[in-house]
Hints:
single chain, alpha+beta, eleven-stranded mixed sheet, four-stranded antiparallel sheet, 13 helices, 17 strands, about 25% helix, globular
Amino acid sequence: xxxxxxxxxxxxxxxxxxxxxxxxxxxxxxxxxxxxxxxxxxxxxxxxxxxxxxxxxxxxxxxxxxxxxxxxxxxxxxxxxxxxxxxxxxxxxxxxxxxxxxxxxxxxxxxxxxxxxxxxxxxxxxxxxxxxxxxxxxxxxxxxxxxxxxxxxxxxxxxxxxxxxxxxxxxxxxxxxxxxxxxxxxxxxxxxxxxxxxxxxxxxxxxxxxxxxxxxxxxxxxxxxxxxxxxxxxxxxxxxxxxxxxxxxxxxxxxxxxxxxxxxxxxxxxxxxxxxxxxxxxxxxxxxxxxxxxxxxxxxxxxxxxxxxxxxxxxxxxxxxxxxxxxxxxxxxxxxxxxxxxxxxxxxxxxxxxxxxxxxxxxxxxxxxxxxxxxxxxxxxxxxxxxxxxxxxxxxxxxxxxxxxxxxxxxxxxxxxxxxxxxxxxxxxxxxxxxxxxxxxxxxxxxxxxxxxxxxxxxxxxxxxxxxxxxxxxxxxxxxxxxxxxxxxxxxxxxxxxxxxxxxx
Length: 505
């Protein structure tokens, strides 16, 4: 989904800096006792993993499926995120900023899973394919970049405008580097046997299962697990049951209602940067009227979600960023420009959500009751995410309940604002197109100093909240089921990782 293109903001030249933003988060990656290098340790068994989200886009790295690939240790980018949210080396061993628009990345010695070498030409081709993807990956929202090979180990990346967070941006799972044969003539992308991670995707059984084998020539050392058998299980109760009955070793997104059914030792609660919000369609339908959006926002009691629906595994919605982004609360300002609430007077609306995260239908049901009490006539629609995404992005619902990791795309707090709330945002379910919001987001994108960028992000948040296009409900803690026999599970606030070289049973 693309809307009118946001006006280009002229950026003046800035001092040359090698900025890497590091949003400090509450909590670090949990290693579970393992290490990230096999180091010759005895092989573990194959891992059995239950994931909540079946592939929605044929496991293309350019959309929501990208995190499936990164969580399973299949794909990598030039950079990664460390425990504090700073850019860390991955396929690029190092990098430096040459001027305000140009960066030179030096590649490490690595191979693709098809045996070909990771060369500057291969990386350049992969990044070029990403820039041409339709719709554009969320990490490239509002950004143009050009990659060129430089010698035997270098890739020079030039951006259309100064981009001080480029190393963070390149850590996005949607900018994974794949071998040349991954890219088909029809613009499709096939990650089977073409990635660089410690595990090679060897077989995909539609939207039900996948098989991964260890990639023995992985540059970071041979993984301890010999492979991974993946099941895509949308039903959260079934995931919890599979863990309890020893059918799987790792189960993501355990429903809060099922947490008590697991032994305490097998459930790991991780503070994340995920916020569940009510998004209102500002482009068409009833919520094109700002007064009705204000009425919907006033009808919502966020405490009912944190205490009731999420049973304490969440905090009441305070803004787009939650407590896991520790600097946000101290910089938050009041929403700007909110309209006076109107009278719903029986206005009919369609509220939609998905059931891959089992709390969402319950949250939507509570919202339905709250909105109906305020005077709306609400029809609720619940589907599995892969059957709902295109309709949501196409603006076919009046309201939508979404659980969104606000730092998953790049690790930069501004990126989610650009992709979700600007006129040309690639994940703009609220279909918001407001010149004041676009201007505030562009100013945040311009900021290079870390503290100033955070201040600008919060100023943009105030503008966005002022439109009532989004009503934050809760900031989540994600529960992962980890069998007692498993060590080295990678649990991080960004939900990008789950299995690494040191994960084993």
